């Protein structure tokens, strides 16, 4: 199984940015742990703070993955362009993940464009949400 993980803006700072919300483990360390835990799968990872780079990367994934796990960060709430890119590619399963409970935060975070096409949304479980997403693909 080929699984892609995409993270949007500021998620490169996980481990140092607001650790009370996002935790203490660095994202690179977490991705290494995921690849070890799910060694029988091909897990790719991409992060960018730039909307256009995320869109280009999504477009390049067309017909290459069995599933995509995406945490578009703040772009979840603002980017119709990322939504359109996800709708334009052939990826059988899209799972949206947010580390924090976006519904317990500011009102502008309560809406996600990506949720409208995601097969599932996992919010509020921290980094464990990525594992939950992968585990859900195995059942």
What keyword list fits this structure?
139 residues; alpha/beta; five-stranded parallel β-sheet; 5 strands; 19% strand
Tell me how many strands there are.
5
Shape: globular
Indicate the proportion of strand residues. 15-25%
- Main-sheet strand order equals 2-1-3-4-5
Helix content: 25-40%
H/E topology pattern: EHHEHEHEEH
Q: Provide a count of the helices.
A: 5
Biggest sheet, in brief? 5 strands, parallel
Provide the residue-averaged pLDDT: 94
Low-confidence stretches: none
Q: Give the N-terminus to C-terminus distance in angstroms.
A: 13 Å
Molecular structure report:
The protein has 139 residues and is of the alpha/beta class. Helix content is 32%, strand content 19%. Strands 2-1-3-4-5 form a five-stranded parallel beta sheet, covered by helices on one side. The two termini are 13 Å apart. The model has no long low-confidence stretch (mean pLDDT 94).
């Amino acid at each position: 199984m080929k699984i892609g993980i995409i993270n949007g803006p500021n998620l490169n700072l996980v481990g140092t940015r607001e650790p009370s919300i996002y935790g203490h483990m660095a994202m690179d360390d977490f991705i290494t742990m995921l690849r070890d835990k799910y060694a029988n799968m091909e897990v790719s990872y991409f992060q960018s703070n730039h909307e256009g780079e995320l869109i280009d990367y999504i477009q390049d994934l067309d017909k290459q993955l069995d599933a995509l796990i995406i945490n578009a960060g703040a772009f979840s709430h603002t980017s119709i362009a990322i939504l359109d890119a996800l709708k334009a590619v052939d990826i059988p399963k899209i799972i949206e993940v947010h580390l924090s409970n976006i519904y317990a935060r500011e009102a502008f975070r309560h809406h996600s464009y990506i949720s409208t096409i995601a097969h599932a949304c996992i919010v509020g479980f921290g980094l464990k949400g990525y594992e939950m997403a992968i585990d859900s693909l195995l059942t």
